[in-house]
Amino acid sequence: MDNLELAKLATEVRKSILTGVYNAKSGHPGGSLSATDMMTFLYFEEMNVDPKNPKDENRDRFVLSKGHVAPALYGVLAEKGFFDKEEIKRLRKPDSFLQGHPDMKHTPGVDMSSGSLGQGISTAVGMALAAKLDNKDYRVYTMLGDGESEEGQVWEAAMFAGNRNLDNLVVIVDYNNLQIDGTLDEVCSPYPFAPKFEAFKFNVISIDGHNFDEIRDALKQARECKGKPTAIIMNTVKGKGVSFMEDNVSWHGSAPNDQQFEQAMEEIEKAGEALCQK
pTM of the full predicted structure? Predict the structure, then answer.
């Protein structure tokens, strides 16, 4: 799939994020929008997954460790065909299988329930170890928030992964430099990321998380790296694609009102139309 097709898909995912959070009147649009491009690439280019056989034991696994950005994951899964896109409008409704955090028991395509920050990476490490013990070829991908990386459990998991040479594991850090209470420096900075992961025996790659060429190259390097897990530090913009949400911490966990939703969707629509002219 070429970059233009991926960009068009990412635009549709961003529409789903906004639609879901708006209809729910709650949710986390900022980090969902920053994670969209990488998630789109994973599901449409990188990972071996099949919506017709979602429990295939040989499928690649994805764990959304920063589970509060579930709207991005749901948007990608809907585009991939795991469920009807209309379900997005029922995000967080009591009778919907799309809740505020991913639920592996009820949501098609979700490999692990997550939301308690810091725990998803440990699950992903366990999955990667299981693949090694079972002589399976599937790969495991997990996405962390940069603020989430203040959790000590993240680094315990990294230490284990590096010492077990889990080269089938890719840890992706969504580095948008904002968390619920402000910038990471203002809260409890886990910087610098690269030397920390290197100290835990990781292959580390830093990229622009909105550039599909850089995403493609980083994941290729991860596949080719033997004997080490890979950490991809992706520099992103929180709220990417919506002017008034970009790099604005207040959109970490806020839903747009009617006027804001209309403006946001108009901006995303125009971006999509511009892609169609290329």
Answer: 0.97
State the DSSP string of 6-40.
Answer: HHHHHHHHHHHHHHHHHHHT---HHHHHHHHHHHH
- Any idea what DSSP says for residue 45? I
Tokens 């203002």 -> residue? 186
- CB of 170 closer than 8 Å to CB of 230: yes
The pLDDT, as a whole number, for residue 107 is 97
Radius of gyration of the chain (CA): 17
First to last CA, the chain: 15
**Rounded average pLDDT over 89-109:** 97
* Whole-number Cα distances in Å, 266 to 11, 236, 242: 12, 22, 9
Name the residue type at position 235. N
**How many Cβ atoms are within 10 Å of 226's Cβ, its own excluded?**
8
Give the single-character DSSP code of 96.
-
For the chain, what percent of residues have pLDDT higher than 70? Answer: 100
